[in-house]
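target protein:
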Amino acid sequence: MTKSILVTIFILLIFGCSPSENSKTRNFELIVSDFEKQLQRDLKDDNIGGSISVAIIKEDKIVWSKALGWSDQENKILADTSTIYRTGSISKSFTAFLMMQLVEEGLIKVNDPIELYLPEIRELKGYSDSTKITFLQLSTHMSGLIREPELEGAASGPIENWESKIIQSIPKTSFENRPGEQFNYSNIGYGILGLSLSRAAKRPFVELVKDKIFIPLKMNNSYFQIPNDKTARFAKGMDGGPFGEIDVETPRIEHAGRGYKVPNGGIYSTPNDLAKFMISNMGYRALLKPETLNLMQTGKSSAGDSYGLGFFISGGNGITIIEHSGSVSGYTAQLAFDRDSKYGVVIMRNYNWGTTDLSLRSHILLRDLNKLKKNNLD
């Protein structure tokens, strides 16, 4: 055996991969390093004493996860990868996902009028035989309903009463336009959708999401109500900004209960757990058929960007990003993935004000990783 062969074997044993493989690793690591440094700068510039937590996936694995800053600055608790945040409207993606699970089970059809299961819908202002609303229209924000009900206190109250808040809200809800005509983002619409799914399945909505999504995907840190033994891991929400008084009371009150806003904004989770849900939506460890996922991730309405079933679809520069954001008092979140490159990212934060544009940060990262994939460097 020649000396040169022995040297080559020695190098391979030491480094465990070829020079080209090392190059790929460095390229990926450089992109992620730049991304992390940008988030660190954002956190410093925001200067509110909060935290930003992130998970990046490739195909069926979490390939990078990090937490920066304070989960609770007052009590000197640093965020880590198990820190829990509110997801806000990312909850809508779960509700639409559950809807399609019930469709695949044959319990409902997407074009069924929801009055078949929720006759109270007939109490809507302006409701008639010509304005019947379907499951599909609710899930794509094409129901024509206004964004919020005109019911005082609709968005407050304990989770146990959310269904009654929906029923009380229905007579206080009207149409912005006729069903099927145009996109109108509607929180009350998704609340009605969640209750309709519960009625169709004859099981509580929260129980359905837990049994059909959380448990199968091993989302062990996702809840509608945080257990007492997990509250220390819940990030303290902060509203307001560094140039004004920071409001911790409103996020605390909302944590105690958000009224009807359960199917459209009630989930608590971590980036690592949301990454598991995102992986399933990319077709790995799938709980839905490929054709169903494709239906959900295909735009049905024009809203600047298109909206599918529980997801926005953003196109441009040779990349299609499937995403949903969430924003409630004291918390913002972003879930986004690229079906072509099979990369995805979740970003969660325990404050509202700030220079960190979560959508922009996720789009830049996914575009950089998409280029890496196209150049066979990932």
Summary: Residues 19-46 form the longest helix (28 residues).
